[in-house]
């Protein structure tokens, strides 16, 4: 049996990261409310430090390191937001960080991770296994490996965004959360089940990679090939052991969104709310829009998970 994190861990994480993570704004839009026939509250993690909610989980996990762990350092494998979240949290806490990234990772992401003080180790994604490299580094140098989602401290940290949202706006009827490996969704579910017990909780993943939906409906973790989608933060191949147990117990359903729907949301956020949101960050609102008829007159929370998107790619989406 896994020792699953609880709401108490989310509350403890909130205390631990207070003053370090941004308390991100909750935004509303008359246009969104009119379109939806509902009151929509957007929790804007695109304004989190390093541009995504992942700072919360990373900061919580690293803040719990003991002296030995702090001295030996942290290792993470990621080419995305988790890498930057670990590098920045480690820098703020004075802990050395090693990030394992593919040789062909976007130069901007490698540069951002190095700028936050991370020591980048590259690997060939076609011939080498990053998890093995990460684990070997951990064993050889006594470093602590912090995975991007399947870790109790990461889950608890991610849950602090939904906690802040509900504490700020009051109870919700529905909450829409972007879903990759499930750290954000399981943490949000722990918070929402405690603070808004009747709230329906929905995870939303890219239609091309609906392993979470298949897992939720079949009752066991389904593995898929890396999905082809513009939602690069949700190109995970499977849920985690911890995240799946919590999702199975506390989440009401898993929905999907197409790339076209994500682009339409990206445009909506840019045009109507003057905000830059990355494709993955649009998943929640994209699914809420499709469920409009069931949300009439309701109070709806949407977690906007991040805003890290290359400007050339972003302008191509908006122009397209
Ligand atoms: C990582 C990430 C997700 C998915 O989070 P999980 O905890 O893996 O489900 C969603 N949006 C953004 C912006 C991310 O960086």
Please specify the SSE layout and strand pairing.
Elements: H1 7-17, E1 26-27, H2 30-36, E2 39-44, H3 54-63, H4 67-72, E3 74-77, H5 81-93, E4 97-102, H6 107-115, E5 119-123, H7 130-141, E6 144-145, H8 152-158, H9 160-169, E7 174-178, H10 183-195, E8 200-206, H11 211-218, H12 241-250, E9 253-257, H13 259-273, H14 283-290, E10 299-304, H15 311-319
This protein binds pyridoxal-5'-phosphate (PLP).
Keywords for this entry:
320 residues, alpha/beta, 2 domains, 6-stranded mixed beta sheet, binds pyridoxal-5'-phosphate
In the CATH classification, which architecture of the largest domain applies?
A: 3-Layer(aba) Sandwich
Question: What structural class do you assign from the helix and strand content?
Answer: alpha/beta
| CATH fold node name of the largest domain | Rossmann fold
Alpha carbon gyration radius: 18 Å
- Which small compounds were modeled alongside the protein? pyridoxal-5'-phosphate
């Amino acid at each position: 049996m896994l020792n699953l994190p609880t709401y108490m861990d989310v509350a403890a994480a909130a205390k631990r990261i207070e003053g370090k993570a941004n308390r991100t704004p909750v935004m509303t839009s008359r246009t969104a409310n009119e379109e939806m026939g509902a009151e929509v509250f957007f929790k804007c993690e695109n304004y989190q430090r390093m541009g995504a909610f992942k700072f919360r989980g990373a900061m919580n996990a690293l803040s719990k390191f003991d002296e030995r762990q702090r001295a030996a350092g942290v290792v993470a494998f990621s080419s995305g937001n988790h890498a930057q979240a670990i590098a920045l949290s480690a820098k703020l806490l004075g802990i050395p960080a090693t990030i394992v990234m593919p040789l062909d990772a976007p130069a901007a992401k490698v540069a951002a991770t190095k700028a936050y003080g991370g020591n980048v180790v590259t690997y060939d994604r076609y011939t080498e296994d990053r998890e093995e490299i990460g684990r070997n580094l951990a064993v050889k140098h006594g470093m602590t490996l912090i995975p991007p989602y399947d870790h109790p401290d990461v889950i608890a940290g991610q849950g602090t965004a939904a906690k802040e949202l509900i504490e700020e706006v009051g109870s919700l009827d529905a909450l829409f959360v972007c879903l990759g490996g499930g750290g954000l969704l399981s943490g949000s579910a722990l918070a929402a089940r405690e603070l808004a017990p009747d709230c329906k909780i929905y995870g939303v993943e890219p239609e091309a990679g609906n392993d979470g939906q298949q897992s939720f409906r079949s009752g066991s973790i389904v593995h898929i090939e890396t999905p082809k989608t513009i939602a690069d933060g949700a190109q995970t191949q499977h849920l985690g052991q911890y995240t799946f147990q919590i999702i199975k117990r506390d989440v009401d359903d898993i929905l999907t969104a197409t790339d076209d729907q994500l682009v339409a949301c990206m445009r909506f956020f840019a045009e109507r709310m003057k905000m830059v949101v990355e494709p993955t960050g649009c998943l929640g609102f994209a699914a809420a829009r499709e469920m409009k008829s069931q949300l009439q007159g309701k109070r709806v929370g949407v977690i906007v998970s991040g805003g890290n998107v290359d400007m050339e790619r972003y302008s191509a989406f908006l122009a397209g």
